[in-house]
UniProtKB/TrEMBL annotation:
Coiled-coil residue spans: 247-294
Gene Ontology BP, a term: asparaginyl-tRNA aminoacylation
Top-level taxonomy: Eukaryota, Viridiplantae, Streptophyta, Embryophyta, Tracheophyta
Protein name, per record: Asparagine--tRNA ligase, cytoplasmic 2
Cellular component GO terms held in the UniProt record: mitochondrion
Organism: Acorus gramineus
Superkingdom of the source species: Eukaryota
InterPro entries: Aa-tRNA-synt_II (IPR004364), aa-tRNA-synth_II (IPR006195), aa-tRNA-synth_II/BPL/LPL (IPR045864)
GO MF term list: asparagine-tRNA ligase activity; ATP binding
Length: 561
């Protein structure tokens, strides 16, 4: 009996309209996102707001002239396409039928008629698709011209706030409006879901979220192109003014003074005037020289070693971070498991994006094998969260095991490839190019591939040196159609080894003194990895261009907004 009551209560709750906590309307996703496609809410009065995505008008049979028109709230003023049609709390004869890539409905009914002396327009019914951005699918709204001035709604992009009854389509499949899925809106929703899933995975597995600095004095990659931050250029520009007009005026005055001096020289009687003119000419020449010297001083170059950074804001050179891994290590040595989710910046023009987002995790008391297990769990968790999208690549990750192969074996396999010519000939000791990695995942293994034990020269200085002295405990996870999705490895915990690696890479030691202190004063075995978030979005959406999976992509030569 109790179970029956509970089941009845659950069913009743499921068939209730869920009003938004922050506005007096219903979010469309709570209707069209239901398993029954909103049929359980038929007959409920709702208010929805959104934007007209498409419309279709159908002429109705001619009505009697005595049929009253409907007044639908305050009439919009000005340009209809920029106005919001407000009909809240005014009974409206319209039907709202749920539609996903098709469906239909018909409207009719009545409200409180108000006699209005207006010419009888040709009667019609308008079918709208309205979307509020909460989901891909839209609601079909059916409005009779006897209820509203339907031409107000027949502009794509018009914002509307509508009240009406949810009804089933009277004739399924009729008056269907083709729904054009907006790629950017869909990608944004999926990106949001993946970000949320990332935080859930990390929090559920005991990772603490740490906000890492954007400004840094350290190059986490070593010899990479970084965006430099300075106030010196601004000061130089403020101190440099355009003196070209003033210089022209002074030169013209000098010309007149010289002509005056020639006249005074011919007239030897006025020697005092001649001396005064000569002094004026000398002052004018000195002023011209001073202006020209000021103009010849170029703005300071940040690549010039003579730049005095002690006069800069931080009294030293500063950059936008290209990775939080070094800073995150310090927190891992105190909290064991930490992660950061934020933007990183690369000034290398060969990269697709100058600004991207990275999920970086660090674990104390963990070696590379443990990290590789975490990587697989992470990817499978994220793919499970978006399983409803039915994307083949996500299903592949969720169901398959990851192929593991050493860098050395990968090079040997690529050397044996005969049906493809690589742009860059593969040799041991070089970085694997995108074409090499793609061929491994897509052509050879046809599934995600983990490549590990890279040569020490191609990976950052902080990767742990293996016993062979040639390779480091680093790995890349390569996914078909996407490329490198995750990169990471075990960190070098021994002071002597990492100190030597810094010297081998020719890095400025003073930048890394604070980092070396973690080893000087004792540390533990620790590892970490970085997930390139834009690549994860590409994997989940199937979008091939990385510029289409991030808002306002930043690329070389383009910063218009």
């Amino acid at each position: 009996m109790a179970s029956e009551i509970a089941a009845t209560a659950t069913t009743s709750e499921q068939n209730q309209v869920h009003w938004s906590k922050y506005s007096k309307k219903v979010v469309l996703n709570t209707i069209v996102g239901r398993e029954d496609r909103g049929l359980g809410l038929v007959g409920d009065q709702i208010i929805v707001g959104g934007w007209v995505k498409s419309f279709k008008e159908r002429r109705s049979p001619v009505r009697s002239k005595s049929l009253p028109a409907m007044v639908v709230g305050p009439e919009p003023k000005g340009d209809v396409s920029c106005s919001e049609v407000l009909m809240s709390r005014i009974p409206l004869l319209c039907s709202i039928a749920r539609i996903i890539f098709g469906g239909g409905g018909s409207g009719g009914g009545g409200g409180r008629p108000v006699e209005v002396a207006v010419p009888d327009p040709a009667p019609s019914v308008v079918y709208l698709l309205v979307n509020d951005g909460s989901c891909v699918s839209s609601l079909q709204v059916v409005i009779d011209s006897s209820v509203s001035l339907v031409n107000q709604f027949m502009v794509i992009g018009t914002s509307v706030l509508l009240e009406g009854l949810l009804k089933e389509p009277s004739v399924p499949g009729k008056h269907v409006i083709e729904l054009k899925v907006e790629k950017m809106a869909s990608v944004t929703r999926i990106r949001s879901a993946l970000g949320y899933s990332t935080h859930i995975f990390c929090q559920n597995n005991g990772f603490f979220n740490v906000h890492m600095p954007i400004l840094t004095s350290t190059d986490s990659r070593g010899h990479s192109e970084m965006f430099q931050v300075t106030t010196l250029l601004g000061k130089a520009e403020m101190n440099t003014k355009d003196d070209s007009g003033e210089l022209d005026s002074i030169n013209a005055a000098i010309k007149e003074k010289r002509s005056r001096i020639e006249q005074l020289k011919r007239n030897e009687s006025d020697k005092e005037a001649l001396l005064a003119a000569l002094r004026d000419l000398q002052k004018a020449n000195e002023l011209v020289l001073q202006i020209e010297q000021q103009k010849s001083k170029s703005l300071p170059s940040l690549k010039d070693e003579k730049v005095d950074f002690s006069k800069d804001y931080f009294s030293r050179q500063a950059n936008l971070t290209n990775s939080s891994v070094l800073h995150l290590e310090s927190y891992a040595c105190a909290l064991s498991s930490v992660y950061a989710f934020g933007p990183v910046f690369q000034a290398e023009k060969t990269r697709h994006l100058a600004e991207s987002w990275m999920v970086e995790l660090e674990l104390a008391f963990a070696d590379m094998e443990r990290i590789l297990e975490s990587n697989s769990d992470d990817l499978k968790f994220l793919s499970k969260r978006k399983e409803k999208t039915c994307i083949d690549s996500l299903q592949l990750i969720k169901s398959s095991t990851f192929e593991k192969i050493t860098y050395t074996d990968a090079v040997e396999l690529l050397k044996k490839v005969t049906d493809k010519t690589f742009k860059t000939k593969i040799e041991w000791g070089m970085s694997l190019d995108e074409e090499h990695e793609s061929h491994l995942a897509e052509a050879i293994f046809k599934q995600p591939v983990i490549v590990y034990d890279f040569p020490k020269e191609v990976k950052p200085f902080y990767m742990r040196l293996n016993d062979d002295g040639r390779t480091v405990s680093a790995f890349d996870i390569v996914v078909p159609k996407v490329g490198v999705l995750i990169l990471g490895g075990q960190r070098e915990e021994q002071f002597e080894s990492i100190n030597k690696r810094i010297e081998e890479h020719g890095l400025p030691r003073e930048q890394y003194e604070w980092y070396l202190d973690l080893r000087r004063h004792g540390t533990v075995k620790h590892s970490g990895f970085s997930l390139q978030f834009e690549h994860m979005v590409m994997l989940a959406t199937g979008v091939e261009n990385i510029r289409d999976v991030i808002p306002y992509p930043r690329t070389p030569g383009k910063l218009s907004y």
